[in-house]
Amino acid sequence: MSFMPLGPMQEPRPSDTVLALIEAALNSDFVAVRRLGTTLVGSLPERERVGTQERLTRLFRGAGGTRPPHAMAPLDVKTKSPLVEELPWPTGPLFLDDEDSQLLERFIAEAQAADELAGAGLAPRSNLLLVGPPGTGKTLTAGHIAARLGLPFHVARLDTIVSSLLGDTAKNIRGIFDFVQREQGLLFLDEIDAVAKQRDDARDIGELKRVVNTLLQGLDRLDHRCVVIAASNHGHLLDPAVWRRFPYRLTVDRPAEGLRASLWSHYLSLDPAEASIANALAGMSEGLSGSDVAEIALAARRTAHLKRTKVSFSAIAGALLDCANGKFSLPTIGELDRDATLSLRRAVGERFGLTNGQLSALFSVTYEAVAKDARVKRAGGKQRSGLAQQSGAAADGTPTAGARDRRR
Ligand SMILES: Nc1ncnc2c1ncn2[C@@H]1O[C@H](COP(=O)(O)OP(=O)(O)OP(=O)(O)O)[C@@H](O)[C@H]1O
Ligand SMILES: [Mg+2]
């Protein structure tokens, strides 16, 4: 597994960025001002960065009296809303497995050397298609590539530009490609299957073909410096001709166990000594996306921050038990009492086959206490069901929804 940070090699020194920002402002180059401003704020120490990023976003949205962003962005033929939005580069890391990472590095290397390759008659087609379920990091990947290439991150959501009038859809698509050719940024075509999906609704197949053709022409007309990344949750719906325009394809799946451990470690801000916690949580979160892990981990950290306590790994374990039972949940806010905690610990241990060491780390109890409980449990099934009833737990030791809800 590997990790593709906004590496120091690619990041300019803050003093260069400040000068470039001033120059861009003097030249009224607002796309560059937004990009450089985002870079500068991203380089601030963490405690300053979060608040400043929010203020910057407000400024970009025009709340601070600045020029509205994307003044030059193409507008929807009918609604007149912008078809392309420029998003800031991501500031957090992207976790990928080695194979995916290698493919992206190759894509980036070719896009960086586009001019040189074109000079040798080998102009690359820098088009990458990302296919995978929601929350697997497709948008994040595209943002990282934009950052690595130092290009503005222009995002167009095709599902929002598809109009009931196919003629308007085609005009919108042309508008997007003209803009990207002019701005020479990275175009991220999100939900690219929206155009293909329209086939089911379209009464006039001939007209739909013209829409797909507009997309193909747009892709073909871009010069070798333009980079296009498209994303889809439904790769099978894509027109084969569109598919062929993307020589780089990445199927992003829900992360495997090793990658999940890295995600838990990062989003819970664990230190290396807590690797066993990350590994235990990774083993318990099979089937979750990177986004699910981030949501659960950040919810637990927010609760801990507000309550001025440590992050509750047992509450995370409870949420993962719900997830494993098919119900996505965030960690509970309230404290469980002793009996309910014991029931939860047993249920989690059984469901995920955890070792006594893992249970002791997750539930902050001594190894001996867990081992003793395991002996007690083996010795008396009857006692356990009595305790379960008292504590509002089901006979199998799982706290009932009511018992857990009462403590939220
Ligand atoms: N591989 C990953 N590395 C780091 N964080 C990740 C990863 N995958 C997902 N995340 C987290 O999940 C969030 C959502 O990911 P993202 O929006 O990129 O998913 P997506 O595949 O584009 O989803 P959708 O199909 O719904 O648009 C990210 O902002 C990040 O916090
Ligand atoms: Mg996305």
TrEMBL record:
CDD domains: RecA-like_protease (cd19481). This is AAA family ATPase. InterPro entries: AAA+_ATPase (IPR003593), ATPase_AAA_core (IPR003959), MT-severing_AAA_ATPase (IPR050304), P-loop_NTPase (IPR027417). Residues 376-408 are annotated as: Disordered. PANTHER family: AAA DOMAIN-CONTAINING (PTHR23074), VACUOLAR PROTEIN SORTING-ASSOCIATED PROTEIN 4A (PTHR23074:SF83). Residues 124-256 form the AAA+ ATPase domain. Residues 392-402 have a biased composition (Low complexity).
